[in-house]
Amino acid sequence: MQCKGFRIHTSADGLTRQLHLLKLASGTCNETAALASLNWAADNILAEFRKSEATGLNLPQFTTQLNATASCFPYGMGVKGTHPMVTITAENAAITAAKTVDITATGPNAPFRYDFCLSNL
């Protein structure tokens, strides 16, 4: 069994925003572990936004949403079933330039969207 997570980290100077994959630093990972009670450490940087100078422009945002349930294939294979689904949304350059965020937009103003099926909840 493995416990993994992710977090959004913005640097103190406001010039960098990263999406980190987390790994368990200490604690016991099992099917009944309270995830908030475990100690986490950054494992990898999944995405990063940077700006070259401190301007009035905001860095693109990452958002996360836990959807109640969805019909999905855990890990992209196996038997399709109903599981909780986490959606990570990241703004793109067009959204940042337009200074409006519409997570339902299509075309060039559509944010990047990644859905993850959580079969272990």
Task: Describe the fold and architecture.
This protein is flat. It starts with a strand and ends with a strand. The protein is mainly beta. It has 2 domains: 1-55, no CATH class; 60-121, no CATH class. It has one helix spanning 93-98, and strands at residues 4-10, 16-26, 39-50, 62-72, 81-90, 112-117. The strands form 2 sheets. Strands 1-2-3 form a 3-stranded antiparallel sheet, with no helix packed on it. The chain has a 3-stranded antiparallel sheet with strand order 4-5-6, with no helix packed on it. The protein contains 1 helix and 6 strands, in the order βββββαβ.
Low-confidence stretches: none
- Helix tally equals 1
Strand arrangement, major sheet: 1-2-3
Rounded to the nearest angstrom, the radius of gyration is 17 Å
Structural class: mainly beta
Largest sheet: 3 strands, antiparallel
Helix/strand layout:
Elements: E1 4-10, E2 16-26, E3 39-50, E4 62-72, E5 81-90, H1 93-98, E6 112-117
Antiparallel strand pairs: 1-2, 2-3, 4-5, 5-6
Please provide a brief summary of the model.
The protein has one helix at residues 93-98, and strands at 4-10, 16-26, 39-50, 62-72, 81-90, 112-117. With 121 residues, it is mainly β.
Keywords:
121 residues, mainly beta, 2 domains, 1 helix, flat
